[in-house]
Amino acid sequence: MDTKRRRIMNDNINVIGAGLAGCECAYQIAKRGIKVNLFDMKPHKFSPAHKNNNLCELVCSNSFKAQKTDSAAGLLKEELRVLDSLILKCADKTSVPAGGALAVDREKFSELVTKEILNHPLINFKTQEITDIDYDDINIIATGPLTSDALANKISDLCEGFLSFFDAAAPIVTFESIDMDFAFWGSRYGKGDASSYLNCPLDEETYKFFYNELIGAQRAPVHGFDVLNPKVYEGCMPVEVAALRGIDTLRYGPMKPVGLKNPKEGKRSYAVVQLRRENKEGTLYNMVGFQTNLKFSEQTRVFGIVPALKNLEIVRYGVMHRNTFINSPKLLYPTYQFKTNQKLFFAGQITGTEGYIESVSSGFIAGINATKIFQNKSAVVFPKETVMGALANYISDENIKNFQPMGANLGILPNFEPEIKNKQLRHESFAKRSLSIIKT
Questions:
Q1: Distances from the Cα of 298 to the Cαs of 294, 295, 314, 361, in angstroms?
Q2: Measuring CA to CA, how many Å separate 315 from each of 174, 238, 401?
Q3: DSSP code of residue 99
Q4: How many Å apart are CA 87 and CA 403, to the nearest integer?
C-alpha cells in the first residue's frame, strides 16, 4: 500500500500499555503534534499485581531511587527532567520526604499522570485489551512484565520466546500500628529529612529469632518458582530468599544498621528494619527492602517479631509474580525498534530495562523515534555518554549472550581517557559530560 495513502487512513501512532513507559511514550508523541491511541486493559481487566484503576500504578515500591547526579539513578532522572519528561514532572509534584531519594505518594502520582494523559487533546485513551498486532501500523508495545496471556503469546511467537524472572513487592503498614517506644526517626548517615524514615531496631537475640522464623515461614506458591535456585531480580529478591544465603546476609543488606545511631540506646543497633514514608500524610509506610512471597498470615506473624512492629497492621501485603522480558540484544536496535520491523517498538521493563525511571527512559526514546518514523525521518540513537543512551546501548548489544535485566549504573557509561582515578571526581565528571550533551 502506498505510504501517503496509508497515512491518511491511519494518522496516529498506537501505544499499547499505559504504565510508566507507555504514558511517557504517548506524551512525547503528542507533544510533537501527532495523535496517539493509548491502549490499556485497565480497569476492564487487571494483571495479578495491579489493583488501581488509574494509569502508572506503582507496584513494587514508591521510590525512584537517588536524587544526586553523582549517582546513575540521579543522573538519569536529571537527563529526563532536562528533556521535559511527563513522569518526572508528576513525580516531583507528588514527592514525599525520603532522604536522598525521590519517593512519591503513589496514589497522588498515579492520579496526576492519569489526569495529564486523559486531558491531552492528542491522546485518545482506550480501555481495551490488545490481543493482536497490526504490523502495518506504527506500534509501541509497553505492556510491561505482566503482559496479558493473549498478547504475550503473540509477542512470544514474534520474539522466538521470552526470558522470564520473578519479582516481588514489599508490605505497606499503617503508621498508627507502629510502636514508637521501640522505633526512632532518622535517615542513614543523617542525609535528608529526619522524618523520611522510621527505624525499627532489633538486638542480637531478637534478630536471630526473627531470622530463624523467617527462613522457616510458609511461602505462597508461585508456578515455576524454585525457592532453592530462584531466578529473580537481585534488586527485588524476596527477603526470605535472600536470608537463605546466611544468617548475616540481611544485616549487610536491607537490615544493615550502618549509618543509624539509635538515640534510645546511644549506639548502633544490631539490626534495623527501615520504614519509608509511603504518602504525603505520613499515615502509611513501606518496609524498605522487604519484598516477600510469604503467605499473608506469615507476614503478620514473622514481621511482628520486630518489637516496633508487634502490633503492625498491613494494608498491602507483599506479593510475588512472574515478570517477562524479551531477548532485546537479539531483537532490538538502541532506538528500541524491532530489527525485522522498524515500525514496531518495545519500551519498558519488557525490554529488560530494570527499574521505574529506566522504563521511563525507554518510553521516552521509543516515543520520539516512533515520531521520527511517522514523519519519514531517521531514528535517533542517544549518545552512550548519557545514561539514557548507555541503557539503550546495553539492551541492544549483540555481544551479550546471557541477557539479564539492567538498571541504571555508571559502569555502563564509557570511561574517560585518561581514566579519572578519584571516584567522586569521576562520578561528577560523568554527570557534567552527560548533561552537557543532553542540553545541546
A1: 6, 5, 12, 37
A2: 7, 19, 42
A3: T
A4: 27
Residue 322 gets the label, from left (phi > 0), alpha (psi -120 to 50) or beta, of beta
The pTM for the full model equals 0.76
Count of domains for the chain:
2
| Structure confidence at residue 187 (pLDDT) | 85
Per residue in 72-117, pLDDT tens? 999 999 999 999 999 999 999 999 988 889 999 999 999 999 999 9
Give dist(CA 62, CA 194) in Å, integer.
Answer: 18
* E strand or H helix that includes residue 14: strand 12-16
Can you give the residue range of the structural domain that contains 280? 172-322
**Across residues 35-55, what is the average pLDDT?**
78
Question: How high is the pLDDT of residue 222?
Answer: 66
d(CA 127, CA 18): 10
* Beta-sheet pairing, 314-316 with 172-174: antiparallel
End of a domain among 302, 322, 342?
322
**Are both 371 and 270 inside the same structural domain?**
no
| Cis, peptide link before residue 43, omega less than 30° from 0 | yes
pLDDT for 339-359, tens place per residue?
Answer: 999 999 999 999 989 889 999
Supply the pLDDT for residue 3: 35
Assess if residue 373 is contained within a domain: yes
Average model confidence (pLDDT) across the chain: 88
AA identity, residue 316:
R
Q: The domain spanning residue 243 has which CATH number?
A: 2.40.30
